[in-house]
Amino acid sequence: MSRIFCIANQKGGVGKTTTTVNLAAGLAQIGRRVLLVDLDPQGNATMGSGVDKRALPLTVYDVLLESASVAEAAQRSESGGYHVLGANRELAGAEVELVGLERRNERLRDALKLVAEEYDFVLIDCPPSLSLLTLNGLCSAHGVIVPMQCEYFALEGVSDLVNTIRQVHANLNRDLELIGLLRVMYDPRITLQAHVSEQLKAHFGDKVFNTVIPRNVRLAEAPSFGQPGVVFDPTSRGAVAFLDFAREMVDRVSASTPPAAPPAATPAQAAASDR
Ligand SMILES: Nc1ncnc2c1ncn2[C@@H]1O[C@H](COP(=O)(O)OP(=O)(O)OP(=O)(O)O)[C@@H](O)[C@H]1O
Ligand SMILES: [Mg+2]
Fold first, then answer.
1. Which atom in ligand 1 lies closest to the alpha carbon of residue 222?
2. Stated pTM of the model
């Protein structure tokens, strides 16, 4: 069964897409089967995976409107070694079209159920808003990864997001939990960042990932080559940090996954134990 994670933060430009693409590629490098779902009409995660958003025959839009399955619409990221359910500007229209449809919040969840055996991880790159698209992501997921910069206003934004996660958990998706806060674009020389980082740890404890992603220009250059940073320059500090993060995620997931239930007894065994 796949584990499904949303990478979300309603604030724009905080590193959601960079996190999604590099975590996908990092997990693929350590042998995991990964599907990246681009839920943002900007299509940055699609392009950053080396898949041309303008040439896609089918996208996540078709999946949300039930005119295609995930298996039909997914493409392979050759550079990243994972699959991509891509997006482009067409997806902006889905927001309006979904409003009048049945199970409008659960459309992505229903579609992903059919490929649960194909992937170990499904990573959903959310747009910078708490829209119907983001809600579809949150209703599909087991957990949320929140990338954030250690800046003063970031703390306020995170409280809003944590409240949204609580509400979705209470009303729409009992599986959903906050997996962790990921400090990104971090520069320890900036005193304010170190200070906010300490505040985060004091307030959120072990919900703050141990791995810290540094500000690193190689991560910002990689998308223009259609490659995840961990592939584009594997020795860069940013790439090394994202590989560490992929390992940390695998450890967290295996620690939180309950052991598989023992196989049910056959009728003959059950009869024997009754004797
Ligand atoms: N660790 C980093 N070091 C340097 N640059 C980074 C890093 N992470 C992201 N960036 C750059 O910061 C910008 C914003 O990052 P990104 O697109 O990942 O954010 P986002 O949260 O997905 O944005 P949006 O809200 O628009 O979807 C991009 O130009 C990206 O290349
Ligand atoms: Mg983005």
1. 31
2. 0.93
Near ion ligand 2, which residues have CB within 5 Å? 16-17, 44
Residue 182 Cα to ligand 2 midpoint, Å, equals 15
Pairing of strands 208-214, 3-7: unpaired
Q: Using a 6 Å cutoff on CB, does residue 16 contact ligand 1?
A: yes
Task: Give the pair of three-digit tokens for residue 126.
Answer: 């959310």
Q: How far is the CA of 273 from the centre of ligand 2 (A)?
A: 57
pLDDT level of residue 258 (50, 70, 90 thresholds): low
Q: 221-252, pLDDT tens digit by residue?
A: 999 999 999 999 999 999 999 999 999 999 99
- The yes-or-no verdict on residue 188 having pLDDT over 50 is yes
